[in-house]
Amino acid sequence: MRSRSNSGVRLDYYQRIVHRLILAHQEPVTGLFPASNVNSHAWIRDNVYCILAVWGLSMAYKKIADQDEDRAKCYELEQSCVKLMRGLLMAMMNQKDKVEKFKMTQSPYDSLHAKYSSKNGLPVVGDNEWGHLQIDAVSLYLLILAQMTASGLQIVFSLDEVSFIQNLVFYIESAYSIPDYGIWERGDKTNHGEPELNASSIGMAKAALEAMNELDLFGARGGPASVIHVLADEAHKCQAVLQSMLPRESNSKELDSGLLCVIGFPAFAVDDAQLIHNTKDAILSRLQGKYGCKRFLRDGYRTPKEDPSRLYYERWELRMFENIECEWPLFYCYLILFHAFQSDKRSVQEYADRLEKIMVRSEDGILLVPESYAVPQDLVGFEYQKPGSQAREVVGRCPFLWGQSLFILGRLLQEGFLAVGELDPLNRRLGAQKKPDVVVQVVIIAEDNEIRDKLAEHDLHVQTIAEVAPIEVQPARVLSHLYTYLGRNRKLGLSGRKSRDVGILSTSKLYSLKDRIFAFTPQFADLSRFYIASDNELMIDILKGEINFLKSAWDLLGRPLVTLVLKRIHLDQDKIPLAMIQTMRKLKSGYINGTRVMLGSLKDFLNTSAITDLSFLGSTEDGYPDRLHPDVQTYLDEHLLRSFSNRSTMNLRGGQLRPRTLRRRMSCKGAIKKTRSINVDSDNLGMEGPSPLTERRLSSIVPPPWLQPNKQSHVSVFATTPEEGPSSPRQLGHELSVRENIYPVDPHNSTRSAIDRRSEFVRQQEMPKILIQRHRADTNFAETEVEELIAMLRETENLEEQGDILQYLVDTQGLDFNTAGLGFKNKSDDSANANNAAAGMLEEGRVVTVRDLLKGLYEKACQQKLWGLVRHTAGMLGKRVEDLAKAVTDLLVRQKQVTVGMPPNNEHTITAPLPEVELRQLIHDAYGDDESTAMLTQELMVYLAMFIRTEPQLFHEMLRLRVGLIIQVMAKELSRTLNCDGEAASEHLLNLSPFEMKNLLYHILSGKEFAVSSVARGNLSIVSCKSSRVSKKSQIGLGDPEGEDALIATIDDRQGQWLRRRRLDGALNRVPRDFYSRVWTVLEKCQGLAIEGRVLQQSLTQEMTPGELKFALEVETALNQIPQPEYRQLVVEALMVLTLVTEHNMVPTLGGIIYVEHLVHKANQLFLEDQRKVQGDATLCCAKIKDGKEQQQAASGMLLCGGAAYICQHLYDSAPSGSYGTMTYMSRAVALVLDCVPKHGEMECAIS
Fold it and tell me: Locate the GH15-like domain: which residues (predicted)?
């Protein structure tokens, strides 16, 4: 035998170690590794990590193969890898039905198993006997499969296996919204079996999706059929959620060493170098010990205090595990690899030395990595006193193969047998490097020649759809349909991709199909979707947002390409809207909002765009891979014909009004307005009296008096005298006083006083009216009435009136009431004109339901941009925003909970993603019959999701988004700016165009000052106030109907500034930085904190760590009991003063339960005393010397200044700092109320 080179001898030494420690355990039949000699279960995750050392060694041999036996060794090692990866593949393919089912249910019981029998690859525990749903394990498998395939191994043998792997990609693609049990198989750290969203799973899934994208599983020998396709948007969602979570692992684990595999080898899932650095530092500073790292804080696994007889922990006992958690040498192996990939030799050496000290030597001198180190039972007391001082002992398996395998990889890298690039053939490690700027290509296409010519007038030259041929332009929904054919396999019973959604990254590519090329318009431009799409300004705003998003998110080959079709429907009175022209000019200039863009035609961009081959649409299973699947063929043929044809809308036009119907018109008038529930007038937001719900429901369920079924047994048609009628004026007056601002305001006569209007209203009541009863034997009367209404509907041109009539018809007859043929049988004298009037609307004999009429009205309202009516009819038709579920998910996965409904009695919290239908039901239940506000809620959720994607910084320090409160604050802000009453403000709010609505929401989230100016047709426009001049005078350009000069109200803006700010922060639930973890320190020093009747017990500190999200949510829930936002904000300030007391260690303990509101009220008292001394503003209201009458008033809960919760309005409006600032009073209140603070003597006072 020839002599070996030194390197060869050294490699042979590693080969012996790998053989004895790892390969000796591989099962000959399945190729899997059992967990230990006594446990034959094979975990997916551990198996994949075990084989990495074998794969690394095979590549090291491949390089020095100077003799035949080296080649043989190399081949043998490679085949061991293939054997294991295929063993796992077979075990998972046996559960293919689960993969299919999981796409629909995403239930933990339908997930692939986390472990199999190493003897035969079959399941070893039942679906519900183990936390099987571990997305990181399946993702790790796919990631390593991709890396091994790229390194030249052939693991997948047949196209059926390719289909299965494609379905595994679907299995993990929604990882960002699926709570799982995570890398430690625990879920919530109390181990009660509750899954949670884990950053380590999301990161691993993101890495697997990126690694699998466009990968040919047959390696260099494959063709189009063996390529895996991934929708880039899914990987990007995983990345966005991951970035928003790090360095947090999950709700219950504020930090986890398992994140090392996400920020470094093998996943390299984070693109932001700073975030990688922060996450690693957080792990090292809080979890690193002498013997490795702890898995997470308060991890009780294998500690001497753990009760081995049960799987779960009691919540209170988690505190016992603090400082005695086991330390795992495994993480030193990760850190060595992490630094080796960063080529930081010093750190690699440092961790290698640390690791050597804690490894165990076997009899024959091999170094073994033990599983973990625990504090011995008898030393626990000393370890508690001085963490890290005691020697620990090995517990668990030794060698721990997962760690041992990574240790060997680290050694091969250190000794130069492997280069980092060989362990990462897909170059994932380069993800965090700086990328060049993305140039976004934009193509605008005209629907027909007419529109093309209109654009040419503005010097914008575009092509029409016909002219771009042979490239075909299709809407995004066609692409989403084509993607459902991906991964279908009859033999395996797999049905292809389920999700219907295609994002902007997918539509920004070109697609080739045989010899055709497709371009797809983005999903947001699909008009058939929702009324938001008919607001041109909003569409332009979204377009700018998406272009900006592409700039940061695009990482494919080639440049992104956004294709837009300009259609007839976009025209405004036959002209191209100015906003569109301006935007196109901006695009032409080459820059828009800081992003580089190029405007051109499709053929110019063919060579520079990303092109994806849709080869999976061939009939491969029928043996004709070159022919299109017949279903696809028919779908495309049909679709090409109708994708851009316009639908005709129903016509509700009629002749002139007849005086006969005037009376009836009054009866329906304002039917829509009665359903509104936004409450602005009451000074305490959200405080609508004792039982707001019943009262509001009354307003919409109790029919107007003239519609109440008569109380008498026989039916009287005309109730002529008030006594006979449903309610006498006396009752009526009473009813009116209860629900004052429910009755409609006539926008044209808003100048008359309310009393005038009310008396007129009562007069109306007394006029004889026809009574309707819904279920009545004798239906003639109902019919006459409905007929009259429908005749009237045909005659009126005014859409608002049509809306009122239809609202009334829906209330009385229901949506499916057939109106066909009604409204003709009028009195003979005018039946002729009635027939002519209606001729345009009906073809004979067709059923026209109220719903059809509503649809027609909805479409016309969209065209005429009457947004209040649009929102209301959309609500009545039960429309829902297409992306509603997606929007809510976007918010939830970034750890923001959402609540809908008006606080305090009617608020529902959404804590987990729900399907569309359930969401819509929940929202509409929360608002009762108020369809407009329910629609507005859906709309605002979509905008909030847009903002959290593009400007996450707006949401810092906010945990729950309370949409009901946000709506109230929006109305309140409008009423402040416009100087109008609450009802007018909520009308204005509901009539804002979607673009202005989004704009207003943005100003409220960012706290920027704004003014309102009026634009054409009485619509309002929200403008930012940049210069100080504007913010002093809030400008209102609402001319009143008489056409007088516009009013300009000047308000001294300094007054009310702090009140407004507290109100906004309170409604948005914004808190100071590190607020929740500081409250934790306060809670540690007292027995509890009482807020609005909720007590936060000290025991919470036993269960949860300071930075834990679950703790923050507990505090937040208590604060949310307070309905008035500004009062809530003062309570937050009081808590901040308490944290200062604890942080400066003024006192050892704060005593018993602290009632936080007492502090606020005490501060208010001190404030009023000072006000009396200096004769301040508050002497006009709360600081007055009281006489009997006023005391009585105060007792009944009315403050003169209208301050919420008995706190003077002027205190709310004081700045926090300064000698009359709120913090000063709070500190004095704390000193007075808490017994533990010494009353006399000098104290250090540090309040900043």
Answer: 8-964
Residues 6+ apart with CB under 8 A from 321: 298, 299, 300, 303, 305, 306
What is the helix (H) or strand (E) element at residue 269, kind and residue range? none
> Which one, of 853, 777, 785, 844, lies nearest residue 819 by Cα?
853
Distance in angstroms (rounded) separating the CA atoms of residues 723 and 952:
62
**Residue 750 burial (CB < 10 Å; 0-12/13-18/19+)?**
middle
Question: DSSP string spanning 1137-1180?
Answer: HHHHHHHTT-SS--EEEEEHHHHHHHHHHHHHHHHHHHT-GGGG
Cα-Cα-Cα-Cα dihedral sign, residues 70, 72, 77, 81: positive
Cα–Cα distances in angstroms (integers) from residue 174 to residues 197, 206, 228, 889, 913, in the given order: 11, 10, 17, 11, 12
Can you tell me whether residue 488 is helix, strand or coil? strand
Q: Measuring CA to CA, how many Å separate 470 from each of 104, 389, 519, 521, 611? A: 38, 75, 11, 16, 15
How is residue 180 annotated by DSSP? B
CA geometry: angle 1181, 1185, 1187, nearest 5 deg: 100
More confident residue, 828 or 811: 811
Ramachandran angles phi, psi of 437, nearest 5°: -65, 140
Q: Which of 65-69, 573-577, 1074-1078 has the lowest mean pLDDT?
A: 65-69
Distance in angstroms (rounded) separating the CA atoms of residues 5 and 1165: 89
Domain ranges within the chain, ordered by starting residue? 440-638, 783-820+845-879, 884-1023, 1072-1185+1198-1233
Residues in Cβ contact with 409 at an 8 Å cutoff, skipping those fewer than 6 apart: 52, 53, 56, 337, 418, 423
- At 1248, the pLDDT band (50, 70, 90 cuts) reads very low
In degrees and rounded to multiples of 5, residue 1119 shows phi and psi of -65, -30
Q: What is the pLDDT of residues 516-541, one digit of tens each?
A: 899 999 988 875 557 777 788 888 99
Q: Return the minimum-mean-pLDDT range out of 402-411, 597-606, 723-732.
A: 723-732
Q: Which residues are CB-neighbours of 545 under 8 A, at least 6 positions away?
A: 946, 950
Tokens standing for 742? Answer: 């429910």
Question: What Rg, from alpha-carbon coordinates, does the chain have?
Answer: 35
The per-residue pLDDT of the chain, averaged, comes to 81
Alpha-carbon gap, residue 639 to 658, rounded angstroms: 47
The CA distance from 812 to 817, in Å, is: 10
Q: With residue 828 as reference, give the H or E element that holds it.
A: helix 828-839
Backbone φ, ψ for residue 160 (5° rounding): -65, -40
Q: Which position has the token pair 């849709």?
A: 614
Q: How is 1009-1036 classified by DSSP, letter by letter?
A: -EEEEE-GGG-EEEEE--SHHHHHS---
Residue 691: pLDDT band (50, 70, 90) is very low
Alpha carbon distance 215, 165 (integer Å): 11
What confidence score (pLDDT) does residue 402 get? 97
Q: Is the pTM of this model over 0.85?
A: no
